[in-house]
Amino acid sequence: MNTRTVSLLILVLCLLLHLIDSLDTLAPNGTVKDGDVLISQGRRFALGFFSPGNSSLRYVGIWYYGQPERTVVWVANRENPVNDTSGVLAIDRHGNLVINEKSSSFPIWSANVSSMSSNDYATAQLLDTGNLVLKHDLSEVVIWQSFDYPTDTFLPSMKLGLDRRTGLNWFLTSWKSEDDPAPGSFSYRFEPTGYPQLFVYKDRAPYWRGGAIIEQLPGGAPEMTNDFISNLTIVNNATEVSLMYGVINASVLTRYVVHESGFLKHFMWQDEGQRWTEFNYHPKELCDYYSKCGPNGNCGANTADQFDCTCLPGFEPKSPGDWYLRDGTGGCKRRQNVSLCRSGEGFVKVKRLKLPDTSTAHVNMSLSLKECEQECLRDCNCMAYAIANKSMGEHGCLKWYGDLVDTRAYSDLGEDLYVRVDAIDLARYRKRSSLVKKAVVAAISVSALLLLLLGSLMYCLLLKRKRADRRGRNPLVSVTTSSTYCDELPGLKDLDSNGRRKTDLPLFHFGTVAAATNNFSSANELGQGGFGSVYKGVVDNGTEVAVKRLSKYSGQGNEEFKNEVRLIAKLQHRNLVKILGCCIQEDEKLLIYEYLPNKSLDSFLFDDTKRSLLDWGKRFDIAYGVARGLMYLHQDSTLRIIHRDLKASNVLLDVALKPKISDFGIARICGGDQIEGKTKRVVGTYGYMAPEYAIQGRFSIKSDVYSYGVLLLEIITGQRNSGCYHLNPCCHLIGHVWQLWKEGKCMEIVDKSMDKTYSDEEMVSRCIQIGFLCVQRYALDRPTMSTVVFMLGNADAVLPTPKQPAFIDESSFNGDIQSTCNLTCSVNGVTNTVVEAR
Ligand SMILES: *[C@@H]1O[C@H](CO)[C@@H](O)[C@H](O)[C@H]1NC(C)=O
Ligand SMILES: *[C@@H]1O[C@H](CO)[C@@H](O)[C@H](O)[C@H]1NC(C)=O
Ligand SMILES: *[C@@H]1O[C@H](CO)[C@@H](O)[C@H](O)[C@H]1NC(C)=O
Ligand SMILES: *[C@@H]1O[C@H](CO)[C@@H](O)[C@H](O)[C@H]1NC(C)=O
Ligand SMILES: *[C@@H]1O[C@H](CO)[C@@H](O)[C@H](O)[C@H]1NC(C)=O
Ligand SMILES: *[C@@H]1O[C@H](CO)[C@@H](O)[C@H](O)[C@H]1NC(C)=O
Ligand SMILES: *[C@@H]1O[C@H](CO)[C@@H](O)[C@H](O)[C@H]1NC(C)=O
Ligand SMILES: *[C@@H]1O[C@H](CO)[C@@H](O)[C@H](O)[C@H]1NC(C)=O
Ligand SMILES: *[C@@H]1O[C@H](CO)[C@@H](O)[C@H](O)[C@H]1NC(C)=O
Ligand SMILES: *[C@@H]1O[C@H](CO)[C@@H](O)[C@H](O)[C@H]1NC(C)=O
């Protein structure tokens, strides 16, 4: 061994020691040169110089360590890049963190901390949270941290909000562009005045509002909640108002970003595939944009690209002309000559709203709802009130003065708002709601009788032909009304948002379609569903199509029908069946779809020979595809579509056995899915219907999640859910699997025909668990579809323990419905019933 090797070895050792020493720490006299990096102890984050996008300028930033593409979460010198590679990050003599460069004698960026005593030193350390902290060496006091100066990314354990004492405001600002991290137009911050809320601002103007913090949650961002991925902490006290979130499993990577396009995006890291996936984003729908319908206007739950503004009770359009031209931004004003002060006025309850902007609201947490009403009534300037904290047994009082700004309706979320109206309006709403109540009561008694009769009839029939064809399984149709106060202006619906006529939907001639389907011959019939029969057809150019001939009970006009089809036809996703056009002739309404030769999932799953074609991999792909399609309907499309009749026969398979959801939006097309206040047609299939939907007619995205859970369990077991809310769990697929699962024997029920096609029992049992999470009794407990997609896609994600599924607990059903259920569940035919929607 010669001296050269020895010195080389020593050099290498020194280098190694140096590296180990300074991996995550910048020592008092240390530097980070361009090209060096600090790496946090757990190798999660790295800090160093980088060039964003196509820019050649150099910035100091923090990014995730070891990912194929660099994702920057923080930038120091956002506005002062270094021109060349001469930049150096250092701690200067005063213990200040600075960036120096060759051509400049003073720092181009500084953390601006000083007042360092001469015998103390400061050290900077990059933590595994992504935080760069500057500490006194001796006292270990943190004098500066990057988390206090966020750029565009909100990381777990970071704070957004306001320190009321120091005035320090933690907020995010977007980059200017992908190439330029300088502050852009959009910021995401807490607005502490009135009752605190989160806002995305565009320049200085509100762009999107997260909503008031009701029940510890930012109300307008219902997806940003405590689930099993993250936990939120909201503080609102004398010293600070802030929002923080943590991840329950620390190895899950997640971040929120204010993108330069103005969207607040939520990303999750997928280990599998090594990439970030966008988990959620806001604003999502037209109605989410701030004050879309102006002061006192209410943006609809049907957030299509159609005009959807109404006025809150007691208000009318300020400028009916603009309103007519589909410009709602002018908002609404009080009706003329109303007297709102001590002359018999009162409050009208508006359900499921995003509460108005609370910047000018007053809050008193010690009042009950009743006291709140009295307080508001007494004060003639109080325009509306709402509960501020539902979790305290309806305690806490929010009162609004002046205009009510930025409300929107939800079909399944939101809070109740009580709006002040004069005596005349009050009488009108009272009358209407009592009329509706009477109608509903009458309808229920009549229908209960009918149902009983029909049910017994069917039961008898059934005894004769027990296992007959199950294709068109008992859809339950119900019609209800509920109170409304907003009338839509006529004649607007056939204009698009620019006021032009819409012409983009192919209209087929009835003659053509009739010819294509051999005059709807039974030989061409593919199946029957809740809304009518489906036929196979061949149009002129040889293209095969599927034609759905809708039953005639749609109460909708032709124009409305066309508009709805037009909207639905715009939804495009690889897991949704494509709508090619429609056809209207007098009473006949037809929908023309792409034709899928492999028919529906049930024709495979429940067929003794064809089921073996579906090995575990295919089944998983089908389950995953359906979940993605449903997620698209729920949150990614411009319309929020609740399918309401998801089942195996509504999942079609293409040539490659990829799933496509069909019949989505059909309730809407048939005029059954308007915002509260119109006739509702509730459709579903027992066995797939969530209890709250089957019994109370309340549908939501969570009732779809329930149906998905049933479908998932069917896919795994290859057995039908009997559709019986029966007390004996053994007669019932979910109950049966649940019992086995509790005993740890759930693999026994997995479809035998896919034996050996799964190598990973754990994966199968995970899917069963996900199925159970979806069929939990309370809608609130069920995950959203985006969570389901995440759980399916991440084999490592820790799953919560499901609570007992819906069916077993008898207390959730009242006697009448129970007997109805018992009868209906075993019936093959079609049953009509009427139940109250809410
Ligand atoms: C840093 O450098 C200064 C001046 O070169 C020196 O006085 C001081 O002792 C050094 N500090 C440490 C911790 O090495
Ligand atoms: C960088 O430049 C390439 C080629 O000009 C372009 O395709 C790409 O979109 C650019 N990337 C960014 C982030 O601007
Ligand atoms: C960086 O380069 C630009 C143009 O190339 C020049 O105007 C600017 O003065 C340079 N800045 C520094 C700090 O050298
Ligand atoms: C430090 O102070 C300077 C001058 O007041 C200011 O321009 C700069 O933005 C400050 N830097 C930071 C990181 O706050
Ligand atoms: C407010 O909350 C913060 C965080 O929980 C806490 O540190 C602080 O002491 C609280 N202030 C008051 C006045 O309660
Ligand atoms: C979130 O939960 C984890 C684990 O339960 C806990 O360690 C962490 O402190 C929580 N974070 C917040 C912000 O509550
Ligand atoms: C409002 O009241 C005034 C005076 O009572 C009356 O002249 C006017 O016609 C009323 N306007 C409407 C729209 O009723
Ligand atoms: C809240 O209401 C109670 C009862 O009316 C009153 O005594 C209290 O002063 C109010 N608090 C605030 C902060 O207004
Ligand atoms: C709402 O009430 C719950 C239960 O008492 C309480 O823990 C929570 O802090 C309250 N939320 C707000 C925002 O006051
Ligand atoms: C957290 O997730 C990782 C992978 O994402 C997994 O390996 C680990 O077991 C989970 N931790 C806990 C406590 O469940």
UniProtKB/TrEMBL annotation:
Tagged with keyword Kinase: yes
Membrane association type: Single-pass type I membrane protein
PROSITE patterns xrefs: BULB_LECTIN (PS50927), PAN (PS50948), PROTEIN_KINASE_ATP (PS00107), PROTEIN_KINASE_DOM (PS50011), PROTEIN_KINASE_ST (PS00108)
Transmembrane segments: 439-463
Binding site for ATP: K548
Domain Protein kinase intervals: 520-799
Domain of life: Eukaryota
CDD domains: B_lectin, EGF_CA, PAN_AP_plant, STKc_IRAK
Gene Ontology molecular-function annotations: ATP binding; carbohydrate binding; protein serine/threonine kinase activity
Catalytic activity: L-threonyl-[protein] + ATP = O-phospho-L-threonyl-[protein] + ADP + H(+); L-seryl-[protein] + ATP = O-phospho-L-seryl-[protein] + ADP + H(+)
Protein name per its UniProtKB record: Receptor-like serine/threonine-protein kinase
Organism: Rhodamnia argentea
Lineage of producing organism: Eukaryota, Viridiplantae, Streptophyta, Embryophyta, Tracheophyta
Gene symbol of the encoding locus: LOC115739792
